[in-house]
Amino acid sequence: MAGYHYSFNPLRSLLASQKVTSMEVIKQLLQHIKEQQDLNAFVNVYDQEIVENAAVVNQKIKEGMGGPLAGMVIGLKDMVAYKDHPLQAGSKILTNYISPFHATVTERLLAADALIIGHQNCDEFGMGSSSENAYFGTVLNPIDKTRVAGGSSGGSAAAVKAKMCHVSIGTDTGGSVRQPAAFCGLVGLKPSYGRISRHGIVAYASSFDTAGIFAHTVEDCASVLEVIAGPDAFDDTAVCREVPHYTSGLYHPERYKVACLAGTLSNGGLQPEIKERTLGGLELLKQAGHQVDHVHFELLKYALPTYYILVNAEASTNLSRFDGIRYGYRSSHATTLEEVYIKTRTEGFAKEVKKRIMLGSFVLSASQCETHYIKALKVRNLIKKAMQDILKDYDFIILPTTTTTAFKVNSFANNPLSMYWSDLYTVLASVAGLPAISLPNGVDQKNLPIGIQIIGNYFEEAKLLTFAKHFESIVQ
Ligand code: GLN
Fold first, then answer.
1. 60 catalytic, yes or no?
2. Which of 25, 44, 251, 361 has the fewest C-beta atoms lying within 10 Å of its C-beta?
3. What is the DSSP string of 313-357?
4. Of the residues 22, 130, 152, 316, which is catalytic?
5. Rounded to 5 degrees, what angle do the CA atoms 400, 424, 217 make?
6. Is there an atom of ligand 1 within 6 Å of 153 CB?
7. pTM for the full model?
8. Residue tagged active-site, from 176, 192, 197, 316
9. Which residues share a beta bridge with 438?
10. Contact 307, 432 (CB under 8 A)
11. 4 alpha carbon – ligand 1 mean position (Å)
12. Is residue 271 part of a domain?
């Protein structure tokens, strides 16, 4: 099939002119899924169904009636509800659970004539940075199968990279879209908190959770965001703001003022090639006429502890609903109601999730709440304010996405806590609720992708995407 593209926008005109049919596209993507099952990217592939749906969409395209995403093939992280399909959030505790409704994101994608190909593997309830805490097994990185694809949305990143779908919808609570995007050499967007409805997305930490987008290009990200963003009667935290037409503004960058967080580059744990490539990226921006300043950000060291105190607290309450009565798995060894709760949760959750529920319950307990949870809330406000202060003077904040490139599978088996360090640079935007994007920024000596992260101001995704598109063009 000549002229086939794995990013969607170039394919759109081929589909419109019927040079390529949706069926041919699907066939090839399904073939890639079949050939690369060892990556463990999907937990469920809806192969028959997508072929049927593609026939309908193809007819619509033929008649010139196709929606804005007609023929785009999308994978959903196993945290995003798709009506009448399984939803397990990478956990044993949701075994046999079938979602009775669509997430708002899913509904909007389908209304735009996107085609959903399957659900993708992830860390249990989004808790992890390597997709190794996954009930369905570790996701491997398509670039080097001895390494992880990142997490928690590892399957979603691996699937786009391995050309199994054009775009994936992941979730990002503290970096779960941006970090795997960086590890797999993709664009990964986490919009502002409240930009996309969370209705139908399995909750991890409700005041941090956002849906996010994986794609090969910024343009594909923009095309999807303009379809799925916006207010929603089912989620009051989805902000009532107009959704700009992101794709139309992409090609008109201005001269911007950019702040690089100096402390992120002087950190001893930063892989030297990432530092070099970040500085190289900043140099390219200077040459393109933008102002780049190195800015000191004193609160950087508090971001990670603040994040982990608050998300665990929120997770411990969110996950209390999984009691063996309402959803999915129920222990068969229980004889009393109390045993149903205890045994179901003991058997249904794996180690990392249990650890976090315990930590979260601890920081919320009467004796600890003031010193941990309340204090972390206060620090969160300080971080938000300090970030906002920088964004009063600058259009964007730039920093690396990760401290290292994709690490080997099992690297943190003996010290899982130290994996939390790998979230050091992504949690900042999450704590503040700001929009952030990770873009490919070259490779290290082992040919592993490096990501650069751009953080924008609240609800300024249009400007962020325009700048990201500009960066994408100058870095190549
Ligand atoms: N690695 C982070 C955590 O485990 C981020 C996860 C996410 O964004 N879902 O909390």
1. no
2. 251
3. HHHHHHGGG-SSSSSS---TT--SHHHHHHHHHHHHS-HHHHHHH
4. 152
5. 40
6. no
7. 0.97
8. 176
9. 188, 453
10. no
11. 34
12. no
- Match 């004539």 to its residue by tokens: 113
d(CA 120, CA 327): 20
Q: Are strands 115-120 and 73-77 parallel, antiparallel or unpaired?
A: parallel
SS3 assignment, position 232:
strand
pLDDT in tens, 383-420: 999 999 999 999 999 999 999 999 999 999 999 888 99
How many other C-beta atoms are found inside a 10 Å radius of the C-beta of residue 199? Answer: 20
Q: CATH number of the domain at 186, please.
A: 3.90.1300.10
Written as one letter, the residue type at 378 is K
Q: Which residues pair with 170 in a beta bridge?
A: 212
Is 176 catalytic? The answer is: yes
Domain count, the chain: 1
* Phi, psi angle pair for 26, to nearest 5°: -60, -45
CB 12 within 8 A of CB 31: no
Residue 431 included in any domain: no
State if residue 170 touches ligand 1 by the CB under 6 angstroms criterion: no
What was the pLDDT predicted at 253? 79
Q: Is 314 near ligand 1, meaning CB less than 6 Å away?
A: no
Residue 445's identity, in one-letter code, is Q
Short-list 123, 126, 91, CA closest to 209:
126
Please report where in the chains the tokens 């709760």 appear, as a residue.
Answer: 341
Label the pairing between strands 449-455 and 140-141.
Answer: unpaired
Domain-located, residue 14:
yes
Is 391 contained in some domain?
no
Nearest CA to ligand 1 atom 5: 174
Q: Using CA atoms of 63, 165, 107, 230 in order, give the dihedral in degrees to the nearest 10.
A: -100
Q: Which stretches of the chain drop beneath a pLDDT of 50?
A: 1-3
Convert the pLDDT of each residue in 337-368 to its tens digit. 999 999 999 999 999 999 999 999 999 999 99
Q: Is the Cβ atom of 204 under 6 angstroms away from ligand 1?
A: yes
Range of the domain at 149: 9-228
From ligand 1's centre to the CA of 287, what distance in Å? 35
